[in-house]
User: Fold Pyruvate dehydrogenase E1 component alpha subunit from Pedococcus cremeus.
Amino acid sequence: MSSTGTEQLQALYLQMCRIRWTEQALALLWRRGLASGEMHLGIGEEAVVAGVVGNLDDRDAMALDYRSTPALVARGVDLTSILLEVVGSPSGLCGGRGGHMHLMSREHLVAASGVVGAPGPLACGFGLAARTKGKGGVAVAFFGDGAVNEGMLMEALNLAAAWRLPVVFVCKDNRWAVTTRSSELTGGGLRRRLGAFGMPLDRVDGRDVESVAAAAARAVARGRAGRGPTVLLASCPRPEGHFLGDPLVRLTSAVGELAAEVRPLVAELVVRPGAPLAQRLSAVKGIGGKAAAVAVHAPARTSDPLRRAARRLPEATSRELAVVARREVETALGRVLGEAVSRA
Ligand SMILES: Cc1ncc(C[n+]2csc(CCOP(=O)(O)OP(=O)(O)O)c2C)c(N)n1
Assistant:
């Protein structure tokens, strides 16, 4: 690997570690009951996010989904202000009003939405603004595979293609939309659907940060040169499932933990009146089938994007970078926990 290549990989790995520890800090805040609502983490998406965002500069904008914290971290948004926002502090990034799903930073030109598919139209707006400014800026939209079944995303792809907007559409494909396999509800298939608007589509292994960074560099260069939008289709399994405490993941990985919760449901199977037994059994079979699919498609430890990147670096270097990132996140977390205690 050239020395520039090594430096780039080191920078990307540091960013991925920052993202991972921040997501773990969010998990800790949520488990302690300090962050309300569901918690959607981006663990597993580190390589996609670091690889894409590493190609952006101050001219560029990002439209994010509800797994937005990784991209905010990679963009350089202050870690403490992100964590404070998630615990609802008035000193948080959005004054404590956004929660983890609706984060934004005007200064960094980033905005997230809990509405599936919304990053598409938002990125078109950002892209149009960038083109109007004429400084070569691009916009990036991050969304999941389930979002391709939202009309507004299809319209955004069409508009970007028709107007040759400088937008990079990044589909993070984990193959699931909450509890449904995307392949079961995406007519025509993901790749053909995303590639149907006449713009280039680059398929990448979303666990390999260098492949993502190279593909994103090509897509961003096209946008900057006024050659229009690109789609990046990045596969990236997520070990935590849809949200923290995902029952399907727990069903397959922590059976003992769930036994107490499942027992009353089993008892309900024979309670009358209610649906016919055959119908009830068929529902149970459906849940079992989904759990089996989750087990079959569970990401292997070897597919962890951080491990993959670390293996490409000298061991001492990767360890050192991981420590740097951990310290940064621990400092931010310490401040947030301190504030939470003094507010309580
Ligand atoms: C317009 C809209 N419809 C439905 C939902 C409920 N919902 C939240 S996440 C989700 C699945 C999205 O799956 P995918 O796009 O693959 O993203 P992932 O959560 O896997 O990252 C759905 C249907 C929503 N938030 N917005």
